[in-house]
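Job type: complex structure
Entries:
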Amino acid sequence: AQTVTQSQPEMSVQEAETVTLSCTYDTSESDYYLFWYKQPPSRQMILVIRQEAYKQQNATENRFSVNFQKAAKSFSLKISDSQLGDAAMYFCAYRMTEYGNKLVFGAGTILRVKS
Amino acid sequence: ETGVTQSPTHLIKTRGQQVTLRCSSQSGHNTVSWYQQALGQGPQFIFQYYREEENGRGNFPPRFSGLQFPNYSSELNVNALELDDSALYLCASSLPRREDGYTFGSGTRLTVV
């Protein structure tokens, strides 16, 4: 069964600094998608960035980038120039090809941003 | 382009009762999924509907059931509520392509007492 592991329950970063959130996953599939979602106190899950397993190039969205290591099954999120609005729960997720392409989520990492 | 809307936002029910949660999917999205998120945990997949048919189900008992309507809106029904059903219930819509991330609603917070 596919699993997603986020080993950091909580992280802190100083405003304007860089922070990296870790995620590992387990799958036997060769083609899949990985996502990072942000969940602020408003509860709505917001898509931050996505990565296709077949693409060698790491995805980037403005201040957010990933380090995708397919062989190691690792998918970390780097947030540069951290802002107060980045404070939230961050979830790593894997989209399966079976069971209707459901998302499998990790347990989440709380990110606190200090001013 | 409208997003995903869920109703109600909060709900308190008594153990043994039944509850219906509602979701309007984002315009153009024909796939709707429901997730249960217990406090401090990641969302867990309940089931998914594509063109009014259930096409995937997670490890939830049959008292969790759903519907999808022709306009792609959806309902989640839970019978015989238990205390452990207290959670945030998230609805998400998408196109049925793996490259699409889901668009999530803000959820319904269900408390069972």
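Summary: Chain B touches chain A at residues 31, 33, 35, 40-45, 48, 50, 55-58, 88, 90, 92, 96, 98-99, 101-107, 109 (CB under 8 Å). The mean pLDDT of chain B is 92.
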